[in-house]
Amino acid sequence: VTRTPLVAMLNVEHALVEPVVGEVADPLSDADALAVYVAHERSNEQSRWQPYLDIFPDMEEFGAYSMWSEEEINILQASPWADRVRSKNQRMEDSWNSVYEDIHENYPELEGTITEGTFKWASSVITTRSHSVQLRMKTGKWISADCLVPLADSINYGTLAERNIECYTTLDSEFFECAVSKPVKAGEELLTQYSHEPESSAGSLLTRYGFVPENGARFELE
Predict the structure, then answer these.
(1) Quick check: 198 pLDDT over 60?
(2) What is the pLDDT of residue 217?
(3) Are 194 and 155 in contact (CB under 8 A)?
(4) 5 forms bridges with which residues in the sheet?
(5) What region does 187 belong to: left with phi over 0, alpha with psi -120 to 50, or beta?
(6) Which residues are 176's β-sheet partners?
(7) Which among 32, 159, 149 has a CA at the least distance from the CA of 97?
(8) Pairing state of beta strands 191-192 and 156-157?
(9) Is 188 helix (H, G, I), strand (E, B) or coil?
(10) What distance in Å separates the CA atoms of residue 217 and residue 20, rounded to the nearest whole number?
(11) Three-state SS at 145
């Protein structure tokens, strides 16, 4: 269905080798470093990544937890997920404050491209659209890295019974492929899983991706 070269993915390695941006990204977690780079590239009209990043919706359309009001979070109050959402929002706020302080003091030339809005948008893109991709190092060791994968990130979620697509890295560690895992009829929607768990809970899907499927076995919020 899709076959994407690993070199055509957005990951933290791009952030770390970028002049100036790499200096900001270097001390950060992989997720925050990638968010800094994605925020910068979205605002850079000369970036080769901008046409790809322009495909993603604005913050309001994501349904991401970072956009939920306190009233909306309180709907989950009877479950443990309300506090988890608040904790995630606080971590994002802390991450932005750290990035902003570094940029403001040391890299003022980046203040126009890496803003609170672009950073939080980029964090939401990475949270909701990235794939955990297996990469083989020169030593032969395989590692896992969160990557934005063109085409593969457009495939929707399916429950264990519904999914008909499997995504994986080829053995030569050159491509990330998504292929059908069962017969698919013409016009049938392609669906895959969004985590390494056989079946994700409603809470994890809601608080990471902003939706809960209408059917499935484990869609309680507890």
Answers:
(1) no
(2) 45
(3) no
(4) 175
(5) left
(6) 4, 169
(7) 32
(8) parallel
(9) coil
(10) 48
(11) strand
